[in-house]
């Protein structure tokens, strides 16, 4: 998948539209299934590839069923909508139609945990990763910058199972070539290992200023890079993982990676699923302890500082 010029100036969602059009031009089996969300954005793609952009309307359960049927017929379906309408609302269909039958499909969400809190709890979904983990093995990608969206989407649509790409309005200031399952070392230290997932990297870097910690960056959380974590934990097996969704979602995979050595784990993420507040994404980050100050305070307390 080509990296088009100017991607750095787009949002993740806009970079996704560019990448999908590129993918559909290369793969005649590529089909997009929509549930009204982003239908206007795909108008040009629909004209260029007639019959390969299917909008089922506000029927998310049907969208998953249609994707399952397409997959059974040899197509590579991609289903796109807001995270709660993609994972939570049609969860039974994701479980039975896709996972149970061992089908290939790519799910791409927007909205993340609380990107648009003005819409209320209906558009918030910090639970998505935990729900997918409950269904078994899948590939899960969390880009942290628009330039990372295209390469990660190509990996997702090239897979042989259910893949999930989680887009967000939050993003890091710089892209990193972290497109495979291997984590990238951003900073080295000896007191602890801090894993920053996707758009959390900038906040983690600022929170880690002055701390003797290793910072790893990942955009692929399933499968989890146990080898890189074990290597980074050479000096300390105190591990902090900072994720932009339900706190503790990745603690089981970290536990498994370090199962044969003594260790401590702190999982930072969304700790309160429902704050009963609107506000802005930044205000929700602050309330969840996922702003720079909150992350720094949690790491320092974990390290006894």
Which sheet architecture does the biggest sheet show? 7 strands, mixed
CATH architecture of the largest domain: 3-Layer(aba) Sandwich
Provide the gyration radius in Å.
19 Å
Structural class: alpha/beta
Q: How much of the sequence is in beta strands? A: 15-25%
Sequence of strands across the biggest β-sheet: 2-1-3-4-6-5-10
Q: On the 0-100 scale, what is the average pLDDT?
A: 96
Q: What CATH first level of the largest domain would be assigned?
A: Alpha Beta
Alpha-carbon distance between the two ends: 46 Å
Topology, number of strands: 12
How many domains would you count in the coordinates? 2
Low-confidence spans: pLDDT under 50, at least 5 residues? 1-5
**CATH superfamily name of the largest domain?**
Thiamin diphosphate (ThDP)-binding fold, Pyr/PP domains
3D shape: globular
How are helices and strands ordered from N to C?
HEHEHEHHEHEHEEEHEEHEHEHH
Count of DSSP H/I helices: 12
| Helix content class | 25-40%
Using the coordinates shown, work out and report the CATH topology of the largest domain: Rossmann fold
Protein name: Transketolase family protein
InterPro entries: PDH/Transketolase, THDP-binding, Transketo_C/PFOR_II, Transketolase-like_Pyr-bd
Organism: Ferrimicrobium acidiphilum
Pfam families: Transket_pyr
């Amino acid at each position: 998948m080509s990296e088009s010029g100017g991607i750095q100036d787009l949002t993740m969602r806009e970079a996704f539209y560019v990448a999908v059009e590129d993918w559909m031009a290369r793969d005649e089996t590529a089909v997009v299934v929509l549930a009204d969300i982003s239908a206007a954005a795909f108008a040009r793609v629909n004209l260029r590839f007639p019959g390969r952009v299917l909008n089922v309307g506000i029927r998310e359960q049907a969208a998953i069923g249609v994707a399952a049927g397409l997959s059974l017929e040899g197509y590579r379906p991609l289903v796109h909508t807001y995270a709660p309408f993609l994972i939570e609302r049609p969860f039974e269909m994701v479980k039975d139609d896709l996972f149970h039958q061992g089908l290939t499909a790519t799910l791409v969400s927007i909205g993340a945990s609380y990107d648009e809190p003005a819409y209320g709890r209906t558009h918030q979904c910090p639970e998505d990763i935990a729900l997918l983990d409950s269904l078994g093995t899948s590939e899960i990608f969390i880009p942290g910058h628009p330039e990372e969206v295209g390469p990660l989407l190509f990996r997702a649509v090239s897979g042989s199972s259910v893949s999930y790409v989680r887009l967000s309005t939050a993003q890091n200031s710089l892209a990193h070539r972290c497109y495979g399952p291997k984590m990238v070392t951003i900073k080295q230290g000896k007191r602890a290992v801090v894993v920053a997932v996707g758009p959390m990297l900038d906040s983690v870097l600022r929170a880690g200023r002055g701390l003797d910690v290793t910072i790893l960056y990942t955009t692929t959380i399933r499968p989890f890079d146990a080898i890189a974590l074990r290597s980074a934990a050479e000096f300390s097996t105190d591990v902090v993982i900072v994720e932009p969704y339900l706190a503790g979602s990745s603690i089981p995979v970290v536990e498994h990676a370090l199962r044969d050595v003594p260790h401590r784990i702190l999982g930072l993420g969304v700790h309160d699923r429902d704050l009963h507040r609107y506000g802005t994404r930044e205000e929700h980050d602050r309330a969840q302890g996922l702003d720079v100050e909150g992350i720094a305070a949690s790491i320092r307390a974990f390290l006894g500082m």
